[in-house]
Write a structure and sequence with these properties.
Layout: H1 2-19, H2 27-32, H3 53-65, H4 71-84, H5 98-108, H6 133-138, H7 145-157, H8 163-179, H9 185-201, H10 207-210, H11 214-217, H12 235-247, H13 252-260, H14 266-281, H15 288-293, H16 297-314
Helix pairs in contact: 1-3, 1-13, 1-14, 1-16, 3-4, 3-16, 4-5, 7-8, 8-9, 12-13, 12-14, 13-14
Length: 317
C-alpha cells in the first residue's frame, strides 16, 4: 500500500501543480498550447511546482486522520491552512473557493463543523471532492457501507453539506477504495457502480438529485466524447472529467496531462484525476523530475510515510 499512498499523495500534488498556471484557460487555448510539464507563474503568478488549496486541504485531511477520525480536529486543521497557510505550497493561501471560505470562517468562530458547510444548491463546487482521497485509505478496512457513507458525509459537510456534493465524494471514495485491491480500472468502475447503486436503491435519497450522476452511475462515462465532458468547477463536472481522464488513459503522466488540458478548473481536475491515477499506477510510475520539483516534495514523502503507519493501526474497522 505504500506505493499507492505515496503515488496518490504525489499524484494529487503534481496534477494540481500542472494545472495551477493555466487555471481558467479554455480547452481550445490548451489544445494549441498544451501543458506537458511543470510550468509556473501564469494565472496565479506562482513558481513551478506550486500546488493549490486542493492538495493543501488533502494533506490537512491526511494529517488529521493520522490520529484517528475526529471531525473537530479535521475542521480546525483546515482553519490552520485558511488562517496561517498550514500545508500551503509556500505556507500561504492564494486560492480558496467561496463556499469553503464561508464554511471555514464559521468553524473559526466556534460553529460546529457538523453545520458549517454550504447546503444551498449554488454551493456545489468541487471543494469537498478535491480533498477526499485520504478518506479512501482510512476506510479501506471498513466493511459497513453505512458507516463509510456517514463519515464521508461528515467530512464533506465541513465545507459542502448539499447532498449533491456528498454523493460525489461518496462515489469517488468508493471507487478509490475498490482500486486499492482491483487491478483493472474498468472492472473497478463497474464494481463501484454496483456498490453505489445498490446503496442508493435501499435508501430514500431524492431521485432528482441522484439523476445528476446518471452518466457516472448508469452509463460508462469513459464512452462519452471529449466534447461532452465539461471541466468546470461544478462538482458533477469534476467527478465526470476526472473519471473520464482516468478511464481513457493508461499511465499517470497521460492521465494528469489529459485532465489539465481539458481546461477550465485545471488544478482541481488535475488533482482529482491525479490522485486516482497515482493510487492506481503507483509512486514509481510518476516521472521523477516531477516528484523532485513539486513544492514540499520531501515533506509529502514524510506525510505519506506517517499516514501509512497510522492507518495500519487507527483506520476505521
Amino acid at each position: 500500500m505504500q506505493q499507492q499512498i505515496s503515488g496518490a499523495f504525489y499524484g494529487i500534488a503534481i496534477g494540481d501543480a500542472l494545472g495551477v498556471p493555466v487555471e481558467f484557460k479554455t480547452r481550445r487555448y490548451l489544445s494549441e498550447n498544451p501543458v506537458d510539464q511543470l510550468t509556473g507563474y501564469g494565472c496565479w503568478n506562482q513558481p513551478p511546482g506550486t500546488f493549490s488549496d486542493d492538495s493543501s486541504l488533502t494533506f490537512c485531511t491526511a494529517e488529521s486522520l493520522i490520529t484517528g477520525y475526529d471531525i473537530n480536529t479535521m475542521a480546525h486543521t483546515f482553519v490552520q491552512w485558511f488562517q496561517h497557510g498550514y500545508w500551503g505550497a509556500h505556507n500561504e493561501v492564494f486560492d480558496i473557493g467561496h463556499t469553503t471560505r464561508r464554511a471555514l470562517q464559521r468553524v473559526a468562530t466556534g460553529t460546529s463543523p457538523l453545520v458549517t458547510g454550504g447546503f444551498e444548491e449554488f454551493e456545489n463546487g468541487n471543494g469537498a471532492l478535491m480533498r477526499m482521497m485520504p478518506v479512501a485509505f482510512f476506510l479501506a478496512k471498513e466493511n459497513d457501507i453505512n458507516i463509510r457513507y456517514h463519515i464521508i458525509k461528515e467530512i464533506s459537510g465541513i465545507t459542502h453539506q448539499h447532498f449533491r456534493s456528498v454523493l460525489a465524494c461518496f462515489i469517488y471514495v468508493e471507487y478509490l477504495r475498490i482500486l486499492l485491491s482491483a487491478k483493472d480500472l474498468q472492472l473497478a468502475y463497474l464494481q463501484m457502480q454496483h456498490t453505489v447503486n445498490g446503496y442508493l436503491n435501499t435508501h430514500h435519497f431524492n431521485p432528482a438529485e441522484v439523476k445528476y450522476y446518471e452518466r457516472v452511475l448508469r452509463h460508462n462515462i469513459a464512452a462519452f466524447p471529449e466534447v461532452q465532458i465539461n471541466s468546470s468547477g461544478y462538482v458533477v463536472h469534476t467527478l465526470e472529467s476526472a473519471f473520464w481522464c482516468l478511464l481513457n488513459t493508461s499511465s499517470y503522466k497521460t492521465c494528469a496531462l489529459t485532465a489539465v488540458n481539458l481546461g477550465g478548473d485545471t488544478d482541481t481536475t488535475g488533482a482529482v484525476a491525479g490522485a486516482a491515477a497515482g493510487l492506481h499506477y503507483g509512486m514509481d510510475t510518476i516521472p521523477a523530475h516531477w516528484i523532485n520539483h513539486v513544492a514540499r516534495s520531501a515533506e509529502i514523502a514524510q506525510l505519506a510515510a506517517r499516514f501509512m503507519a497510522a492507518i495500519n493501526t487507527t483506520s476505521a474497522q
